[in-house]
Queue: 4 jobs
Job 1
Amino acid sequence: MRQEAARRLVPMTETRWLSPEEREAWLALVSIMFTLPGSIESQLQTEADLSLAEYLVLAMLSEATDRRRRMSELATVTNTSQSRLSRIVARLERDGLVVRTGDDKDKRVVLAEITDRGLEKVREVAPGHVEHVRRTVFDRLTPEQVRQLALIGRVVDDTAGPGVMGVAASGM
């Protein structure tokens, strides 16, 4: 009896099913979401003993003007949670690739800074990574498709939340 009354209070709306074109696009996107990260992760693990998340942290730090970023900002630009980022940075610290420091101006802020060794690692890894990304993604697309992909990424990223798309990520 209660369930029946609750159903009457909540207006029922019709499901907006995907059109055949939308379904095809969605399944293509799902395929990319599941296969591309594994391919990139595998390349980085094999050639550099780095995860994609670790590489992104190093790349984002290497692109910062002073080679460091606030941990909160770094979490945003690498699309990861604060707690996951903390674990990633701890691993990179153990390998001497990153150090954490306090901010002289604001003692509550923690900064991650790439070390010279970390910068060298990025310089060593980036060419193979970029070649893999080029081969698996960009060599298959026309210049117009690349522009469309960037636009689609920005639009979807705006809906999903802040991330790399909101930050200039030139050398990834």
Job 2
Amino acid sequence: MVRKQGPLVHNITNYVVMNNTANALLSAGASPIMAHAPEEMEELVGIVNALVLNIGTLSTPWIKSMLMAGDCARKRGIPVILDPVGAGASTLRTNTAMRIMQTASPAVVRGNGSEIMALCGAGGGTKGVDSTMQAADASDAAAQLARQYGCVVAVTGEEDIVMNGTCSVRIKGGSPLMGRVTGMGCTATALIGAYAAVAESSFAGTVSALAVMATAGGMAAEKAAGPGSFQMHFYDALYVMTREDIEAQVELAVTGCPECGNEGAGQ
């Protein structure tokens, strides 16, 4: 899907991961824009296929741009993907994520267990921007958030869970090395933006993106000697993987509606 259509994905993301997420999008077949100046938000959102908002390194001007871009994207009807990095670690992060939820009406929220619980007021507990909770610990909070805002919620960790309020998919795969490379969660969010832009639904796009992410992690780990070479092989895997690779690397477990079983991954 992404390779054929090459969606243009606008990312207002953090300093730490800009290069990583841009390269991941390019490797998967999408085109990234990494821009944050408020003076060009309306123009840029007017030409892209999806918007990714990542609050990892917040500042007042960036918050202004995120809210402006989110509002423009909502009016255009393109998918907005929110990554509430570190929600629960500070009042600024939590409040900013909630303002984006209310202003942009995200199609997808992707976070770790602690972040998703913080958005629900459940006090998930964070260690900086890292989670102290597994994805399964946040499943109830994810379902609540999905129903409250009418969005897809993806909780990622050793096992990923995708929920839309009625259906859920558990995604098993990847590698422990993914936790040793900065920005893997942010990369997952960026890929969700690309897949949500071209899929039949945001739910299907999210499942596809996380299956692709897990597959790339598993393939990269087979060749890597450590975190440094893992990152190199991860980009290569995004570039070369096939549907057969996804089927070999990833296990999906569907709960809720039978038709979700057909919403698998594709390139």
Job 3
Amino acid sequence: MIEIKELSKVYRMGKEKVVALNKVSFNIEDGEFVAIVGPSGSGKSTLMHLVGGLDSPTKGSITVDGKDISKLKDKDMAKYRNEKIGFVFQAFNLENTQTALENVMMPLIFSGVSKKERKERALKALELVGLKDKVKHKPTEMSGGQRQRVSIARAIVNNPQIVFADEPTGNLDSKTGENIMNLFQELNGKGYTIIMVTHNPVEAQKAKRMVKIMDGVIIDDVVNERGVENAI
């Protein structure tokens, strides 16, 4: 489903060039749960931002369902992000003045569906992540784990093909983080393709595949037998 070829990203910092990614190539199949693993500054978040359409590569191509998204115009890129992609961030990125239901409904505002359908789909997404009884609560009235579940519900409300998770348990304690990782496994079991960025090797074990990156290049790409077994 996703084909990445010779992908490079170079940033300019004054007169210096910083190579964040250097000729990265690999594929991700539909329905995979892939952990992109590496230390801070390895290029893993840059890779996610490029595939997620949040940034443009310096060189190379990213083909999703036969279309090179690196060549999309702004309008088409926005459509790609809205229809095919869901994002889960470390900092949750929720609106504290809105309820869980309102937060989850937000991605549907520009989808062309009625307010009634937006509400129905948001309620279904919240139920799927185990928050059916928290729809009227605001983020400030929830625990960290509950807030991350709201952000996951928001990520899947549009029924995207791919869910990106950027250090999704970084702000959570270990037990709550484990529960969130179990939820990602459940979603993957329902058919969602999940690409997770993490520096945590314990979390990476939950994925079916680990792509290890260092200094902007892939140094290892292995099937994670433990993740496959846990998903069965």
Job 4
Amino acid sequence: MNSQRIVVKVGSALIAPDKQGCSSRYLLAIAQFIQRCRLRGIDVVLVSSGSVAAGRHLFSASDQNDITLKKAMAAAGQNEMMATWDRFFDFKTAQVLLTHADLRNRDRYQSIRDTLFALLKNGILPIVNENDAVTTDHLRVGDNDNLSAMVATAADADTLIMCTDVDGLFNKNPAQHQDAQLLKNVPRINSDIYAMAGGAISSVGTGGMRTKVEAAEKATSHGITTYIVNGQLDSTFAALLAGENPGTCFSPYEKPMQEELHWLAHTTRALGEVVIRDAGEEDFTASNVLAVKGEFSAGDTILVRNDDGEKLAKARSRYSSCLLNFIAGQSHRINALGFDEPIVQQDCMMALN
């Protein structure tokens, strides 16, 4: 396997296949793969789903879809999940719990990078999961497929391996079509590839094939080779170690996006919008602000639109929504007030037209 640093993502269907807590049925082979990678000098980060699935059996069967109860399941199941992984390894592991708020804030994102680098430098295996016990809807990544791509980017990985309970991406749903064919190699993700990805196949996890394709797009645009493989088969990991492709391989971009722009495009979410007079990038100034939508702070990500509704840019705002609303109402006094600078940080801006 020609990799220096890999992220291995393991889904709930492999961790708790019977919905009765964690099972070693599939995890032992994955743990052995991780150990063999480390023996070859390959850094490994593990992104592990399964806290809700691991804790589900501890609660009554009624109303298990209640969001508050799911948070409690995650809190109870996280210990079991970590303990299960720990007993497979003879080296130290570390628990890293994240929310989308941690990833979309640039300072906290950098802190996550520093933590991952420090753990890897000291031979400790980071085990990452979304912090389901405390996160809310607007702070969630929502699935660990996309989380694994964000972690792979933050960790400067060169390979992402998403282990699931199917062989890879098929041209049609193999559960419904006997003639479905496995796509071994995907050179570029486009609308046709997304059309092949349906909903969730497993009843245990939150992700499906579409979220895996989304994750692959995030990762490959950062130059990360990405695999979707069947984690139920021991042969999968033997093939990976031999440098073979046991599932679907998504090719990385030949010219990856710059790290800051990749973070802006694939990790942050726009918290608001600013409408300006139809103008070029050089005119993203306070005097052109017509309206402000949403609430955001200085440094948050926003969308910039023209007065026809066309998206012009995604960028970090230099001002809060409160101050921009004030500016919009004082356009005749902009220069006197000293707000003649661009409203966005131009070193962290992505044009959308």
